[in-house]
């Protein structure tokens, strides 16, 4: 039953937060599916520039669901990715998602050729580029601006893996850059009107609920377009798995995560689009938490919990503003 006292907008399409699905329906009038791509790049956390081990939770690149890309061009990967949808009824356009590893970590000439292949495809509505904030030098930023100007009918998004604002945790996960680097990158992209999607992990070892909420609240101070809230997954063959199996930390239980993620949404600006609420751990590699494999159940519980408690994205900000006004 719909809550008659709800205070969130109808264009959220009856969800208590601004979902990516609602954004696509409002802007493109159809759902956009992502085609995960592998551009053949590495990462400064793996090639020895910063480290050779990668981030502590990384099992060899974030493109776990990318199409099998050995020897394929970006155009061929897109065709192969489209074929995976088969006869499934989808929209008419897709997002070319440069997912695996660090997708601005190459010479500008190579990046231009790769991105252009995707933008030239008539079924691609735009590209989303997963990268690190310390891999966005001026020439890459200028390339993104140039492509944006050359393809005004398509979008260019950049996805940055922040994970946390807390330096002690960042050191533990071997992130390899300070918070100031992330902040400067978001600002530089915003100056070029390149939308930014930020990855945040909830449940990182040693972090309290308060610290997780501080990371989420920091997004409200920056020109951020979207956020991916990711449950911490422990995957096989990672250094994080070693710590987990030794009992150095525990993963969140389902009820604990639902409480935390709904609290995070309550503290997040209602203008920020929610691109993810839990994440997908590869079934064959996931050590914990196993309950996260039931993604639909988790999402349904999140929606139910928010409706029962009559909370929505940004509600705590609204309450905070009303309290401040009352104290004037």
Order of helices and strands: HEHEHEHEHHEHEEHHEEHH
The helix/strand class is alpha/beta
The helix tally amounts to 11
The average pLDDT score comes to: 91
- Distance from first to last alpha carbon: 38 Å
Strand content: 5-15%
* Number of beta strands: 9
Give the low-confidence spans: 321-328
Strand order of the largest sheet: 1-2-3-4-5-6-8
Radius of gyration: 20 Å
The oligomerization state is single chain
Write up this protein.
The protein is α/β, with parallel strands linked by helices and 328 residues long. Helices cover 36% and strands 15% of the residues. It contains eleven helices and nine strands. The strands form two sheets. It has a seven-stranded parallel beta sheet with strand order 1-2-3-4-5-6-8. It has a two-stranded antiparallel ribbon with strand order 7-9. Helix 3 links the parallel strand 2 and strand 3. Helix 3 packs parallel to helix 4, helix 7 runs parallel beside helix 9 and helix 9 packs across helix 10. The longest helix has 14 residues.
Q: Which helices and strands, and how do they pair?
A:
Blueprint: H1 20-27, E1 33-37, H2 74-83, E2 94-98, H3 108-119, E3 124-131, H4 138-150, E4 155-163, H5 167-172, H6 179-191, E5 196-202, H7 209-218, E6 226-231, E7 234-235, H8 239-245, H9 254-266, E8 273-276, E9 286-288, H10 295-308, H11 315-326
Parallel strand pairs: 1-2, 2-3, 3-4, 4-5, 5-6, 6-8
Antiparallel strand pairs: 7-9
């Amino acid at each position: 039953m719909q809550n008659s006292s709800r205070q969130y907008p109808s264009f959220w399409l009856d969800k208590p937060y601004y979902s990516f699905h609602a954004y696509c329906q409002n802007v493109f009038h159809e759902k956009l599916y992502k085609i995960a791509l592998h551009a053949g790049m590495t990462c400064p956390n793996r090639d020895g520039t910063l480290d050779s081990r990668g981030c502590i939770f990384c099992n060899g690149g974030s493109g776990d669901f990318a199409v099998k890309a050995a020897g394929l061009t970006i155009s061929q990967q897109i065709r192969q990715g489209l074929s995976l949808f088969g006869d499934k009824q989808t929209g008419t356009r897709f997002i070319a998602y440069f997912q695996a590893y660090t997708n601005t970590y190459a010479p500008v000439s190579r990046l231009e050729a790769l991105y252009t292949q995707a933008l030239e495809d008539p079924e691609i509505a735009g590209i989303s580029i997963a990268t690190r904030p310390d891999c966005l030098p001026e020439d890459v930023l200028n390339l993104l601006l140039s492509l944006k100007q050359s393809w005004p009918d398509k979008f260019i998004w950049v996805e940055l893996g922040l994970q946390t604002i807390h330096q002690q945790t960042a050191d533990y996960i071997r992130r390899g850059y300070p918070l100031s680097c992330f902040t400067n990158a978001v600002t530089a992209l915003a100056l070029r009107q390149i939308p930014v999607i930020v990855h945040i992990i909830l449940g990182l070892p040693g972090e309290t609920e308060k610290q997780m909420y501080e990371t989420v609240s920091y997004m409200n101070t920056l020109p951020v377009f979207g956020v991916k809230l990711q449950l911490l997954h422990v995957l096989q063959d990672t250094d994080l798995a070693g710590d987990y199996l030794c009992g150095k930390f525990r993963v969140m239980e389902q009820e604990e995560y639902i409480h935390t993620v709904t609290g995070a949404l309550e503290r997040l600006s209602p203008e920020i689009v929610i691109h993810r609420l839990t994440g997908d751990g590869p079934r064959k590699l996931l050590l914990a938490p196993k309950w996260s494999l039931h993604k639909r159940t988790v999402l349904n519980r999140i929606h139910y919990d928010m409706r029962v408690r009559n909370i929505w994205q940004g509600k705590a900000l609204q309450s905070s503003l009303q309290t401040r006004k009352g104290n004037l």
